Amino acid sequence: MSRLLRGELIKAVTTRSVLGFAVGGVAFAALNALAIAAWSGTLDEVAEKEEALSALPILLLLWGLVGTAGEYRHRTAAPAALVARRHRGVVLSARITAYALTGLLLGTLTTMVSVGLALPLLSDHPGPDLTSGDVGAVVAGNLVAFVLSAIMGAALGALIRSPVLGVVVLLVVNFAVVPLLSGVWEAGVNLTPFGAAGILSRMTHHTTLSVVSAGWVLAAWTVAVALVAVFVERRRDLA
């Protein structure tokens, strides 16, 4: 591991927000498991039971955004590039990679909680039980969504450069724009990062998009946003 990536990884792991998002992620995953498996009534379909295992990876979109945008708010992004003696685009690439690795750690922790809590509760429901293959597929989908969400969040943070503005925009899109769009064009919602992440993590089921297709959609969004962020950062370096 390069010194630059190691330094960015240490910053990502030790940032003040990581503990809050870890605790919040675990709490939301536990609440979702209880709400679906224990409080929502009878579950007799595999897709309904898989929803109880969702670890809400879209939360890491906010975490990546807040962490990376904070570098610009506190004016540490440019000095970090000077210290590393690298272009700011290279430093941002290392920072995004660090958030991806940290997102995988947070995702593993949160998914362990959701699966460990939901599976015993689901055993009391009728219908087919979740097989080890079903559980493994949900866990894999959650982890992929966690990593991609963290990458996209970090890239968006570099583009927006304001934690407050970024959080407000994402919350408005998630809780206002997406629900309105869902009422008139469900297929369109599935093609958004929010919709694709929900399908990939099994929070949403019986949709017009398959789980594998949702993974490709989320990956395409993530790669596009990350490339734009690195390109813009390199242009800032040249200016």
TrEMBL record:
This is ABC transporter permease. Keywords: Membrane, Transmembrane, Transmembrane helix. It comes from the Bacteria. The keyword Ribonucleoprotein does not apply. The chain crosses the membrane at residues 21-40, 52-72, 92-119, 139-160, 167-188, 208-232. The keyword Ribonucleoprotein does not apply.
